[in-house]
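Section 4.2 – Deliverable D4.2 (structural model, holo form)

The reporting period included a commitment to supply a predicted holo structure for the target in complex with iron/sulfur cluster. Inputs used:
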Amino acid sequence: MIQVSQQRERCIGCNACVEAAPHRWRISKKDGRCTLVGAKEKRGFYTINLPDFEKEENELAAKNCPVNIIWVKEL
Ligand code: SF4
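Output (structure tokens):
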């Protein structure tokens, strides 16, 4: 199991995470920032626990995010 987090308010809507993990990230039509699909918000940070098979693509999303607001950790 892994945990993916995002500090959404700092997102610049570049789409890099969507390209890396298209089933897990989506640009919002409302504000142009990306949404971590299924995540819960707490004090500005969106977090979700995911199965290991989503690890690689979300690590790539974290690596490619130009403002470094995505984190992946193993649980
Ligand atoms: S890669 Fe980072 S800045 Fe770009 S859309 Fe995703 S969270 Fe936002």
